[in-house]
Structures are given as structure tokens and as C-alpha cells.
Amino acid sequence: MYVDPKRSAEKSIGNIRWVVPYCTPSWAKAVVALLLFIIDKILVMLLPIMAGMIVDQVIEAGMTERLAPLAWGMVGVTLVRTAARYGYQVLMERFGLDALVRIVCDEYEKLHTLDFTYFNHVRNGDIMNRMTADADGIRNFVGWTDYQMLDCICLFFGSLVVMFGIDWRLTLALAVVSPFIFVVARAMSKRARPLFFGIRQSLAGLNAMVEENIEGNRVVKAFAREPYETQKFDEHNQDFMQANMKQARNTRRFMPWLDGLSYSLQLITLVFGGLLVIDGQMTLGTLVSFNSFLWMLDGPTRQFGWLLNEYQRFNASCVKVRRLLAATSRLDLDAKDALRVDKETVAQQQNSAASGEAVQQTNATVAAPVETVKPVSTAASKLTKLANLAKPSTAATAAAAVPGPDEGDSMADAGAIDLSTAERIKPAKPVKRELANRHMAGEVVFDHVGFTFPDDPDTPILDDVSFKAPAGSSVGILGETGSGKSTMVSLIARFYDPTHGKVLIDGVDAREWPLDTLRKQVCVVMQDTFLFSDTIRENIAFGASQNDDCYIRQMARIAGADEFITAMPDGYDTVVGERGVGLSGGQKQRLSLARALADNPSILIMDDTTSAVDMETEAAIQRHLKELDGTRTIFTIAHRISSVKDADQILVIDHGRIVERGTHDELVAAHGRYWEIYRKQLGAQTADTGYDNRSDRDEQTGKED
Amino acid sequence: MANNRNAARNARNAQRNAQNEARNNAARSAQRNTFKEDEELEEQISLRDIARIAQYLKPYGGQLVVILAAVMSMGAIAVATPYLTKIIIDQIIPNRDKPGLFMLGAAFLVMILVYEALLAYRTVAITKVGQSMLMDMRRDLFTHIQKLPFSYFDSRPHGKILIRVVNYVNTLSDTLSGGLVNVISDIFKLLLTLVIMFAVDWRLTLWSLVLVPVLVVWVRFIQTYQRRAFQILSNKQSNLNAYIHESIAGVKTTQGFAREREQYNTFVDQENVVRHQWMKSRYWMFLMWPGVQNISAMTISLIYFIGITGFAGVDVTTGTLIAFIGYLNNFWTPVINVGNFYNQLVTCSAYLERIFETLDVEPEIEDKPGASRLPAIRGRVDFNDVVFRYEEGGRTILNLVDFHVEPGQTVALVGPTGAGKSTVVSLLSRFYDVTEGSVKVDGYDVRDVTLESLRSQMGVMLQDTFLFTGTVRENIRYGRLDASDEDIERAARAVHAHEFIEELPDGYDTMVEERGSTLSAGQRQLIAFARVLLADPRILILDEATSNIDTRTEEALQAGIAHLLKGRTSFVIAHRLSTIVNADEIMVVDRGQIIEHGTHDELMAQRGFYWRLYESQFAMFKAEQHEEA
């Protein structure tokens, strides 16, 4: 991370202050740009003077010999000035772009540290928007609007000084208008802020809707719901237009006043100046030269209104980006400290969250609900794996509530509470470095594990789950849809952390393992198969350290995928789509299994991985997996008895609890739920093979291979 | 001469046709595109694209004329005020004419007021026209994309589609509405100034235009490179976007494999490519302004020189010269603006190209002209010697598939993965068109009826459960939009989804999100099931629909939907034989052909492929039996 994401959560930090650390590494560019900028501004002042000299000296005084040098001088000055301007424009563009890249990189990194809960609640299209359009809004400000504003300010004050030198009375008369300009500009800007935020939100909504439509295009077509989708789209489309119109109406309300006030500077000069000249208190020449500087004053004031709009666009973008960066992962690197902090700060956090909400409700600018999960037990900012793991995770800020869209004065209270909570957290102890390089044997112990989702703390997903899987053993998990099987194995890879009890891997709490090391050695083949749009080879080699063709093929063979891959026209070089849509369900599952195997994990978790694979192939896969026996701990979630039957230990889960456990034989003998399922599957499948259920009891298994 | 020109034009046309054809072919060959690959580029700035934009302007023609009138009036005021200033300074003040000063001051004030009133009007009117236009364009893109076949979505990263509908269109916003109107007003100002300049002194005016050809050359020069740079940039941005999109969609996988660092590195590489290309495009873009400025400065110096030295017989008074220089300054401001607009246009053309390219993708599957509505069907299905290939000359996916299903029959399709089972049912819903032969529903060729009437009578449960962001209720209602809450509950009960839905924190009002959600895969499948049943289709297609559902639920579900299947023709693809054995007809598909069909008993008696499949799947149980024996 370029900048500690904690800063993004800090409400006391204004957007400009927030963006500064993203820009500072490129300070040299800004300094050179500033120098060039100054050169440009000086030369720009020189041009009218030279033009004046031509008029005064050459035309009036008849010194024609000066014409050529002055004329060439003007051309030369312009050349230098445009070169300088080109230089600083390019530098500032790069400056803004650098900041953009840093911000987007941070967003990208942040994204990958967030736990699954975040993705369950924030839509992909919305995240996408924050990494593209919103980040670009920031770039535009850093790389363009800021120096335009500086330009305006310089011109404005520079011309004021010069004009004051020419005639102070007239300048004062003009200065009378400026407070009004200021008041109007401020009013416009203040009202524009939530409107720009509204535009951003609306765009995000539009983006998310379209994204979902594209993702779900098969369903849309299957139901012939194109008109309905179009209608949904129209609403978003219309909403986006209305958001833009609201902003335009706000501009209409104020901009003519701003522009008119600037325009009136000319009028004042002419009338008031004219009177002064007529009354003999000023020469006509003075008025003329005063008038020639007027454009320097009224240009910037006119432009300033538009630039303020740009500034508010920047603010709106910042809010969106900061929310992503400030989102809290509920996984923390250091469990014990987090737990200790938990008790101390829970009350505080609730307090701060409550006040945060209150503030947001009263704050007119808040257009959207805060989207993170409720403030939960663990601390806010987790150091990422990419950051130095050995570094003490002092990042534990309790600013779990995300900054509201407005971090103005009204937010000060909430911010203060957050800070005080943050201070209470003791620096976490260093992550155990030795664990980082340790090879995992693969022993898994669940010690009275309970889990609830933060948005529904009353419904336990897992309840007091305890079991032990020795290294190299296999565990089969059976249970009804929604009984908590997937959640259970997710705890091993730490996609979630348990809310009660602990998960021990090789005797060490999973939360103590460096996340990177843990996930490198624990591999989950998920129900929801995701393949990257890349070749099959690259997809299988995704997590692998080894990626020679032989190895890849070997893994594909084990997963029962080699056959259909080689049958494809491009074999292993066939490109598959994002969700692997060009493949059948069973093919996708086998590819993702091959990918997991290639990762060579110590713990392999197969979450309903072979559900769409035909039984013949599944049997083959199981045979192949046997070859790996003892080298890794394997968890198999399945609905088919055939998939779990050979496991060293079978767990039957119901409503988050283990209701039965044992080997196949034991469970069959127990005549419990497992036996029931077994009978049903067997009964259905062997209805006409004359198979007799009585033989269940004392059979010997495991030798058929 | 004329012949030559015609020949040249013909040659050009031929070339363009060839290019188009090549492009179409490339698109048709279902070539897959990844985030790493650039899309093709056109060499020349296309005037056709610009002309197409005019279509979007058309509906707002009237409003645009009014806006243009307003903007021109503003331009006229902007040109007139320096003139007013000139009168005050040259005549009123030297004459010490106070009433005149106040008179003109009042006139000035009126002009300001009119100007600001027009500004107020313009601000809103332009936004309205511009945004409406973009809205139309976005809508066209969206509705067009709805018509595109699966292969379009399957063959490119979704991020690349998304960026076209939303981001690219937004980049056009400033240029197309405000930019266009302003440029017209700028041209108007330019002409006005030119007229005044000619009136003041025509010889000086001609002299001041001497460098205009240089400017034209300069602009053309920059444009060539700038356009190229922006084309490449749009491509790289598209790649980056695709990568970001994929990263977001695949974040769980990345986390699961602890591949964050590698993904991050790829991302940074992509980001750097874009940064590099962005700067390149800016190097060219920023050159426009210095060119205009320098030419302006040279022109002014030249005019001073000519005016003062009386070069080439030019003879002007001092007053005229100063006034002339003043106008000359006014002359260059609009030129810069026009130049900037041109700049923007060049930028936009790169994006426009992408947008129109998307709009030009032919929807392969479309209603025939004059396609009739498919009347309420009974459910007879005929496949007549169907041959299917994804692309011309490609691999044959289905080869002479021929079968006939009576209304109300249940047909099970079995066979190894990739045999073509899913393709068979895809042809039925007309997700693809047959290459040879025909698919008929109740005797109607599916190609002769409207897609909407066909698909709305067919319920498809896909392998891949997709739920939309919204409540559980809304997701089920997707099956039939006018369904009442009771209907929804009934459907949920029928598929045994009601129980778990009731247990969710907010019951039917629990929010579900796209793919990731707190629902398990099986639960999502059950919801999708309810969704299909609510649609009450005559023909039901279950494509591995129950793979993630546990035995107990499936059993209950089977019982529950048994009566729902009654009266419906249904196609079932499944691996569990329990789902298959009771089918009226079982068809074994292998390598794109139906190699066996019949009831379970018939097929078992045949001792063919099905029998082997069946046997092998019970190897486990068989083994036990043998041991028992």
C-alpha cells in the first residue's frame, strides 16, 4: 500500500489532505512544473507590456528601429512561454496520473484483503466504478483543476496588484464586488457537493445494473426478460440523467450571478473610470491601460465557478474511493490482541457508530447508506500480506464506521470518538515470523467453533463444532443445503473468522498463521467455479509454483480433465471465458479441481466439487486422488454418499451442528441420518439390481480399488 | 480524369468491403478475447462515425437550434461589448459626455443581463440535450446487447462490454452537447470578427490569414498521431478495465490461492501500460495549443510590422492598427476553442468507434422479419436431423440428432460431460440456431416465431445459478412479473425452498446479491427453481439443476415437482440416475449423437452404453455386493 488505508477512514482528514500522500512521491515533477508555471506567468505579464511598448515607443514616439526587436521579442517570449506551459501541463498530467495509479493500486490491494462478507454486500459494478470513474475524478483534480485554480488565483491577485499600482480608487471600486463573488461561489459549491455525490452514486448504480445484466445474460435470455431488463435499465439511465440535471440546475441558479458579477467589472471600470476621467482625476491613458488589464481579473473570476464545480466532483469521487479503502476486513492478523481490544472497545464502537449515523441523518449531504458491515469485533485495518508482515500491526484502528460523504465540521465529534478508540488499542504483537516459512502438516482441529454472520447475529450458522482431522487424513462432510458445510470449511482457509471458539491448524490458531502462508497451503475448490479468461494452461497453473506442461497435465489427469482438454481444438491453449462459460458445469469443476491440485496444498477442500461431474468420471477422480493419500488432508463436501464414503471420518452436519460422525461403516451401523441418506441414494439407484439393504451392516469396504 | 477518380473510388470501396468482411469474419469465428489482447483498430478517422452521431442529434434538432440561437446571441454580445468599450473610450470620455456615459453604461448593463439570462438558459438546456442524447445512446447499446448471442458474452471479458455501455458513452458527454454548440458559436464569432476585420482593413486581414495554412498543417500533423495514440489508449484502457473487472469477480479465487501478489503485479503492469499510453496521447494533445498561440503571436507581430512599416503598400492609421490588433486577439480565441474541439473529437472518435462497433455486431439470433407469435403450445418437440456447429466449418457439436417428444413427456439426457447435452436444450430455446435440419415446437419451426413468445413458454434451469441483486421475493418473481406474493410462496413451497427462506433473517425480503451471498449454492438453486416454476412453462428444461441439492431436499423436491411436471414436456440433464430412471424416454448422447434411446428398462436390456454407464456408476455398490457374496 502506498498510503495506510487508515487515513481514509479518518474523518478529520479533508479530501485534499487525504490525497496529498498519494502525490508526494512525485513531488519533483510538481516542483519543476511550478517553476515552469511561474516562468509562464511572468512571461504572460510581459506580453502586454511589450505590446504597450510597440504602441508607445514605436508608433507614438516613432522609434521604428525598435519594432523588429520587439516584434521578434514577442514571438520569442511566446515560444518560451508556450514551451513552459507545455512542459508543466505534461508534468502535471503525469503528476495526476501517478496519483491515480497509486490510488487505484491501493484500491486493488485493499480489495484483495477484504473478506467475503464485503463482497456479499457491495456490487461488483460499484467497486468497478470506484476503481475507474471515481479514481479518474481524482486524477482530473490533481493533474488539472488544481493548477487551473492556481492560475486563476495568481492572475486575480497579480492583476489586482498591478491595477492597484495604476489606480487604487478604481481597483477598490472593483474590489467591492469580490465579496459578493465569494459568497455566491461558496453557496454554489456547498449546494453542488451532494449533487455531485448523487451523480457518482447514480453512475455506480447504473454500472452495477449493467454489470449484473451482462453477468446474468443467460438468465435474462432464458426468461425472455429483455423488456423488463430494459425497463430497469431505463430507470437507472433516467436517474443518472436526472442527477446530472439537478447539478445543471444548481449551476444555473448561481453561475449567471457569478458570471454577471465578473462581467460587471468591465462596466464599473468604464462608468466609474469614465467619471473620474471626465472629472479630471485620471487621465484617459491610465483608464486605457487599466482597461487592458481587466481581462486578467474578470477571466479568472468567471472561470472560478466552473473550477469549483470540478472541485466538488473531486470531493464526490474521493468519498467513494475512500469508502472502499476504509472498508474493514473482519479478518485480523492478530487474533488475541483483537479479542482483547474487542471487549474494551465494543461499547465505544457502538457509540461512535451510533453518533456517526446520527450525524449522517442530520447531514443533508448524505445521499447513500454507509455500506460496510457493522462495526465488529476485530479491528479495522489489517496490514496486507504485501506489506511487511513482520511489521507490528499497529494499524488496528477501530474506525470501523466508514467516513460519511461529508467530513465537514459536523463530523468532528464522530471523528474524535474514533480517534479515542483507536488510541485505546495496544500495538499488536509481531506476527510470528517463524510460521511464515513453516510447511503445514495439515492437522485441523475445530475447537467449539461457532459462527454467525454480522448482519444476522441471532442465527448461528455454526454452533459448537468440534472435531479433529489428523494430518493426511480425509474428512467427508455431508449435510443438507444451507446447513453450514461451506461456511465450516471457509473457516479453515480463513475466508471468515469464527465468532466463537477457534480453528487450530497444526496446533496453531488459524488467526495466528500469516494469511498468505495459510492460504498458500490450504486450497478450497469452491462451489462457485471461477475461471479467468485465459488459456486452460494458465488457469491450472494459477496457484502453482511449478508450471511445466508435464506437471499441468499430470494435475489435469488426476482431476479427470486431461481427456476433454486434449479433445479441444487448441488443447491446453484453449481460452476459456471469465466464468468459464464456454465449458459445461462438470468441465469447469474439473478444471478448478486441477487448479487446486496444482497448487499442491497441504489441506485440500473440495466443496461440492464433483456435483456436476458424471459418476464415472467422479469415480476415476477419486481413484486418482487416492494416489495422493496421506500427503494431504482432504475435506470433501458432497451430497452423494459415493463421494464421501471412503473418508477416514465422515461428519454429518445439520443446522450448523455435527449430528453424526464416524466412518462409513460406523455410520451405516448406527442407523442414523447417514444411513437414511445412504439407503435413499442406494435404493433409488439400485432399485432394479436386486440389491439387498440387509447387507449394509457388516460389509468391508475400501478394497475395491 | 473522371474515370480515374471512379476507379480509385471503386478500389477504395472494394478495399473497405474487404476490410469489413475480414472484421466480420474475425468476429464470427468466435475468437476469444482476453484482457491481454487488443482489439482491432481502424486506420482512418471515420467520417461515417461522425455522421452517425448526427442521428442522435436529430430528435433534439429543434432544441439545438434554440440553444444555438441563444449561444450566438451570447457570442454577439461578447463581440459587441469591446465595441461599446471602444466608443466609450474613444468618443464619450474625450467629449466629457456624462449622460452619454450613463446611457451606454445602462446599455452595457442590459447586455450583461441578457447575456446572463441566456447563460442560465444555456446551462440547463445544453445539459438536457446532451444527457438525453447520451441516454439514448446508452439505451441503444443496452437494448442491442440484449439481443446478442451467448457467444458474444462468452468470447470476451465482460469488463470490455461494460466499459462500452457506461464509461465510453460518458466520455462523449462534454464533446457532443456542449462542445458542439460552443464550436458552432465559436465559428460564428470567428466569422463575425473576420467580417469586422475586413471592414476595418481588408489588406491587413489578408495578411493576418497568411499563417492559417501553417496552422492547418500543424493541426493535421498532430491529429494523425494523436488519433493513433488515443486508439491505442482506448484499447489499453479496455484491457485494464477487463482485468479489473475480472479481478473483482474472481477475488475469492485469488484469495483462495493466495495469489494476490501475482495478480497485483499483473495489474500494475497493465496500469503502467495505460499510464504510458495515456502520456503519449497527451504529448500530442497538448501540442495543439502552443501551435495556435505561436502562430497567433507571429501573426500579431507581422501585423505590427506591416502596419508600421507600410510594407507592401499597406497604409493604416495608428488607431486602425490598434483596433485591428484588438480584433486579431479576438480572432484567435475561437480558433483555439475550435482547435480544442477538434482535439476532443479526435479523442472521442476512438471511443465512438468502439461504441458503433458494438452496435454493429449482428445479433445472430433475431426475430425473422414478420415472425409470428408462437401461440400457447401443448409441448410437442421435434428435432429433425439437426446438425450444429458453433461456426461455419468448425467442429460438429451435434450430428444428425433426430427425435420427437410428445406433449407431457419427460426426457432425460445422459452422457459424458461435453457430449452435447446442453447444446441440445440450448437449440430448443433458440439460444443458438441449428446449422442444418430444424427444431420444431408444436410444429412451428423455432426460427419462424418471435423469440419472446418462444422463450416465455419455456422454463430453463441452467447449470449456473444466477440471482440478481434484490430480495428473494423479487428473484422468484423474475419468473412471472405479475405474480402475487401468494403465487411466489406457492412456487417456493413446491420446490421446498419455503422452509429455508422462512428461516432467513428477513424471510422473503432477505436481500441476495449477484453471486456471492450468504446463501449456499443449493439454496440459490432452489430459488432459481421456484423462479422457473413460477413462470409456469409448457416446456421445462433442467440442466444439471439439482447437482448442488442434497439428497433429502432433492427427494422432497422431486416429489413436490412431480405433479408440476405433469402436463409439461420436460428435458432433464442430470448425473444422478435417481433423477433419470423414471423418465419416459432416456436419450444417451455421446460425441454429438444420440446413440441410444428408450426407457430405463429397455436400455438396460440393450446392454449398451447406458447399461455400461449405469454399471460403472455402481461399481462401488457392486464391489460391496461382491464382497458380500
Automatic annotation (TrEMBL), chain A:
GO MF assignments: ABC-type oligopeptide transporter activity; ATP binding; ATP hydrolysis activity
Composition bias, Basic and acidic residues: 691-705
Protein name per the record: Multidrug ABC transporter ATP-binding protein
One cellular component term from this protein's GO annotations in UniProt: plasma membrane
Keyword field: ATP-binding, Cell inner membrane, Cell membrane, Membrane, Nucleotide-binding, Transmembrane, Transmembrane helix, Transport
Membrane spanning residue stretches: 31-55, 67-84, 149-166, 172-189, 254-278
Signal peptide, first to last residue: none
Organism, scientific name: Bifidobacterium oedipodis
PROSITE patterns on file: ABC_TM1F, ABC_TRANSPORTER_1, ABC_TRANSPORTER_2
UniProt cross-references to Pfam families, sorted A to Z: ABC_membrane, ABC_tran
Cellular compartments annotated: Cell inner membrane
Membrane topology label: Multi-pass membrane protein
Residue ranges constituting the ABC transmembrane type-1 domain according to the UniProt record: 31-313
Annotated stretches, region: Disordered: 686-705
Domain ABC transporter: 444-680
SMART domains: AAA
PANTHER family: ATP-BINDING CASSETTE SUB-FAMILY B MEMBER 10, MITOCHONDRIAL, ATP-DEPENDENT PERMEASE MDL1, MITOCHONDRIAL
Lineage: Bacteria, Bacillati, Actinomycetota, Actinomycetes, Bifidobacteriales
Family assignment from sequence similarity: Belongs to the ABC transporter superfamily. Siderophore-Fe(3+) uptake transporter (SIUT) (TC 3.A.1.21) family.
From TrEMBL, chain B:
Subcellular location: Cell membrane
Organism superkingdom: Bacteria
Residues annotated as domain ABC transporter: 381-616
Mode of membrane association: Multi-pass membrane protein
UniProt KW Zinc keyword: no
Composition skew (Low complexity), residue ranges: 1-33
SMART domains with a match to the protein in the record: AAA
KW Cell wall biogenesis/degradation (keyword) present: no
GO molecular function, one term: ATP binding
Domain ABC transmembrane type-1 residues, every copy: 65-347
Keyword field: ATP-binding, Membrane, Nucleotide-binding, Transmembrane, Transmembrane helix, Transport
Major subcellular location class: membrane
Annotated Gene Ontology cellular component terms: plasma membrane
Biological role stated in the UniProt entry: ABC transporter involved in fatty acid import. Transmembrane domains (TMD) form a pore in the membrane and the ATP-binding domain (NBD) is responsible for energy generation.
Family the entry assigns: Belongs to the ABC transporter superfamily. Lipid exporter (TC 3.A.1.106) family.
Name this polypeptide is given: Fatty acid ABC transporter ATP-binding/permease protein
Organism of provenance: Bifidobacterium oedipodis
